[in-house]
Specification:
240 residues, electron transport, iron, transmembrane helix
Length: 240
Amino acid sequence: MTSADYTEDGITNPILNEEEPLLGPNGSVTQNDTTPIYHNFLTGTAVVAQAGIWVLFAVIWSAVFSHDLIFFTAHPLLNSTALLLQVQAILVLQPTSTPRQKSVGTYIHSALLTLSLAGFISAFVVIELNKDSEHRLSSIHGVLGFITYILIIIQALVGVAQFWVPKWVFGSVENGKKIYKYHRVFGYVLLVLELAAVAAATQTTYNISVLNIALWAVLVTSVLILLGVGARVKLSKFGF
């Protein structure tokens, strides 16, 4: 048995030696030709990321529904749902390797991120309608969230351009492909920013006085998400 034999679920999982990281080397999970795409949601360290995002999602939703619902409560509900969808979009695409897998994975990735974008935009609209001009951008969470919303929209536009209309925007399909590595890197940066915005939200007046979501809960689940996602990153895909 070699260090890259296939496991029963059809995923390449190199056997670790004593000197390798506990979560395995970066990008060690690769989808087999015969493995269904939905396996990507749970293979390798995806289970760690899934544990983190679902616990974070449950913490936020349980806190919100433990109190009377108001117009503003749609903001954390929509944001947490959008973040959940974004993590799924990342996980499904990471292990793909063949052209067919990448194509199918990208369509699913695109669909999930479209829903995620709708959630983020809706959450932004809610907060804009709820806040008066005097209290806009008056907290770290508000400023970080606003910047992150803008970057999410830019990232979405670049993703649409490079995959759906590369000739029209970049002049050719090949030029569009050259943007992929930056799109990937920026996607991971965005995930960190979004989790940072969630952490900052625990210090807002509304959370302190009403929801009482603990900062440590957000930090622990965020670490799980980043570890689970980060351990599956294939550095070769960045093309630097």
